[in-house]
Write a structure and sequence with these properties.
single chain; 129 residues; alpha/beta; four-stranded mixed beta sheet; 2 helices; globular
């Protein structure tokens, strides 16, 4: 087999049923920066890419492929430097977050799940130092 030419994970697609509502959530609630916001399919669909402040792998917010759902388990894990504060902030903002931070002890970092407006699940962890 020939060697592949893969270089990085550039983006992860997250399906949405409401692009504007999802953009507001990722930009205004999570504080992500908009890297792209384009329409396609003759203006009928929208492709948005956001990243945490300072860069990293982008989350692409787009309509799901035909017949595919929103409200998926994304597998996206976002790192936090203060999980207690972030959990409280999201909870106070009325975001659908787990009621408690899970603490299993080393080597597993403290973590909690939250859901975006389309019901997609993402995780926040505070890496063990």
């Amino acid at each position: 087999m020939s060697q592949l030419n893969l270089t990085k994970i550039g983006r992860v697609a997250v399906p949405t049923d409401d692009s504007e509502r999802s953009l507001q959530f990722y930009r205004d609630t999570l504080g992500f920066e908009v890297q792209a916001d384009e329409t396609f399919a003759d203006g009928q669909m929208r492709w948005i890419e956001v990243t945490p402040a300072g860069g990293g792998t982008a989350i692409a917010i787009a309509p799901p492929p035909p017949g595919k759902p929103t409200a998926v388990e994304t597998g996206i894990i976002i790192e936090s430097k203060d999980i207690e504060a972030d959990h409280a902030t999201l909870k106070d903002a009325g975001i659908d977050v787990d009621p408690e931070i899970a603490r299993y002890g080393p080597p597993v970092p403290p973590m909690f799940w939250f859901r975006d407006p389309s019901g997609n699940s993402l995780m926040i962890v505070e890496p063990l130092r």
